[in-house]
Automatic annotation (TrEMBL):
Organism: Baudoinia panamericana (strain UAMH 10762)
Membrane topology: Single-pass membrane protein
Lineage, broadest ranks: Eukaryota, Fungi, Dikarya, Ascomycota, Pezizomycotina
Protein's cellular compartments: Endoplasmic reticulum membrane
Family that this chain belongs to: Belongs to the SecE/SEC61-gamma family.
UniProt protein name: Protein translocase SEC61 complex gamma subunit, archaeal and eukaryotic
Gene Ontology BP annotations: post-translational protein targeting to membrane, translocation; SRP-dependent cotranslational protein targeting to membrane, translocation
Coiled coil: none
InterPro entries from the UniProt entry: Prot_translocase_SecE_dom_sf, Translocase_Sec61-g, Translocase_SecE/Sec61-g
Superkingdom to which the source organism belongs: Eukaryota
Gene3D superfamilies linked: Preprotein translocase SecE subunit
HAMAP family: SecE
Any one GO molecular function term: protein-transporting ATPase activity
Cellular-component GO terms for this entry: nuclear inner membrane; Sec61 translocon complex; Ssh1 translocon complex
UniProt keywords, alphabetically: Endoplasmic reticulum, Membrane, Protein transport, Translocation, Transmembrane, Transmembrane helix, Transport
Length: 69
């Protein structure tokens, strides 16, 4: 009987916690949105540069290894 009560209580608690989370969330203002966008953009740029450099190094090394064999 106690297990049945626990199984019924879990979804209720989940919905209660979800409702609290949604009510505490707020839409970012313009300044906060711009800062987040800039941070994400910088992340994309940095990861792109790292990928480009790795590819730039990988192609000649791969040609040396494959061509030398």
């Amino acid at each position: 009987m106690d297990q049945a009560k626990e199984l019924l209580e879990m979804p209720r608690q989940f919905l209660k916690d979800g409702r609290q989370f949604i009510t505490r969330c707020s839409k970012p203002d313009r300044r906060e949105f711009l800062r987040i966008s800039q941070a994400v953009g910088m992340g994309f740029l940095i990861m792109g540069v790292i990928g480009y450099v790795v590819k730039l190094i990988h192609i000649p090394v791969n040609n040396i290894l494959v061509g030398g064999a």
